[in-house]
## 1
Amino acid sequence: MKLVVFDGDHVGVVEEDQVFDISQVVPRGPAWPPTFMNSLIHRWSELATQVDAARRAGDGIPLDAVRLEAPVPMPGHIVGAPANYRRHIEEMGARGSGRDMRELGFFLMAPSSVTGPGTRVVLPRDSVRDFHHECELAVVIGQRTKDVAVEDALSHVFGYSCLMDLTMRMTETLREERTMRKSFDTFTPMGPWILTADEVPDPQRLHLELFVNDERRQCASTGDMIVPVAEQIALVSSVMTLRPGDVIATGTPDGVGPIRPGDSVRIAISGIGGFAVDVVQADTCAPVRF
Ligand code: MN
């Protein structure tokens, strides 16, 4: 099943080119914080039958007539996998540490950096820095997960999505901490939907692609990950409790490169789907310029 958030806080099931609104069965708290998808995921086993009934009862809306939002508008955590594909480590050369995820562990990015498919990525105004695209498989956690064994870890996954981990690169003299460089607003486009895990028999057999203005920049298999998805979940849950709606960005393959205002960036993952975002620069300069 493909689950979308659309037109603000509506939740839908996508079938072919139609969205079926199932918002009436989604648990609702106050409008803020917008954690309704986290609640739906948390109560999925209890609500799945109602979701299915609501989907059957409704009329489809053409997918191109709605505005898709990030499928988890407010994840509690976004966990990032650094240096998890060998050829990306090689291409980073001296800009990277040369070490891989087994040595580096993981990092966090700000949940406020999430944005939806079809939105705009906003780069700082008049920046002379390099901003790079990273093409990643996103894992959406389905339940409270602490100290899960590798062999049980995939049963804690609710579903999968496409994620761009956009990054301000370090320079020789400016080596800011990773969390900051990846946490600008709009730097984590995610979507177009969550494909539930029952439709992804093996997350290590997916094909990732990323295009900038129709030029293919990244192309790889998730089978090339150094630390596979199940082991990433075991690692993270050894440190912190993962919760429904948390997202793991599982690392980027090689081919990362610059994005500039005016670019269109498109991600696609086999069996899941894809989306594009437009790159613009901010209207005004921030108080601290990057
Ligand atoms: Mn990344």
## 2
Amino acid sequence: MTPNPPWQEAVGELKSRLARSRKLTVVTGAGISAASGVPTFRGEGGLWRQYRATDLATPEAFRQDPQLVWEFYAWRRELVSQCHPNPAHLAVAAWSRRQPEFTCITQNVDGLHEAAGTRNVVRFHGSLWEMQCAEACRDAPSSWEDRREPLPEMPPRCPYCRGLLRPGVVWFGEAIPSAALQAAQQAVLCDLMVVIGTASQVYPAASLVDAAATHGAYTVEINAETTPATSRVNLALTGPAEQILADL
Ligand code: BJW
């Protein structure tokens, strides 16, 4: 007989909380997309183990070497374009259709929540598929979607002013887009928050769970490992999100 997985009892508690919730907010990080083949940032095989974040994910790095930064993002666009939502994304999409009020705040830039059909996704750190004019020229919109694969030129240029383009993502030291921040400020006023697959090390995303708890929400973490948030949540399920959420 196969033993029950360690999270089985906690899954029962989460199920009953989901059934009673009127306002659910889910916060996701790279771990939810790991089973889809998208590399995470920290931990084994993570991007920041192979590359220095300061060389690739800061405005200074882009100013210094736009070609190098674009090569990194072009490689990730290519990789992610081959990836598909996994059972964890699909479970979140199902909640988004069932729960009376629902928000998914994702730090991920891969677009897999949208591909799974999740309603009301807030892209806290932007998207791999968005572009911005690096010069913020007068004619270009602040951000626009571009799913062309591969990129038309390297580094790509703004179709409005021919200046440099930059990826529409949030780098270290940059502000979270104000619409995303405002949506998150509303979403933390929830009765249930489920935080899935994030190391809870990058702020302000890592503080959302505390804001929800302060408001009185019941807080749950689903992660393959323990994180700085584990001891602060009401319920921690330690294991792969794609298996735990499939069990639901
Ligand atoms: C599984 C699994 C499976 C694996 N199932 N689980 C307060 C205190 C200290 C510092 C700061 C602070 N406030 C701000 C800062 C500075 C900074 C920061 O937080 N630094 C920390 C590193 C200390 N924050 C910022 O700079 C932010 N901006 C800001 O605060 O601006 C202020 C400002 C205001 C006004 C004007 C100007 C400025 C911006 C942060 C931007 C982060 N950007 C990145 C790159 C995005 C683009 C790209 O993708 O290239 O976002 S960095 C990277 O980290 C990416 C991610 O979204 C983010 C979070 O990573 P995540 O999702 O947690 O992934 P991992 O890999 O770390 O963890 C994966 C987890 O999954 C692990 O726990 C695994 O166990 C788990 N896992 N498989 C379940 N199958």
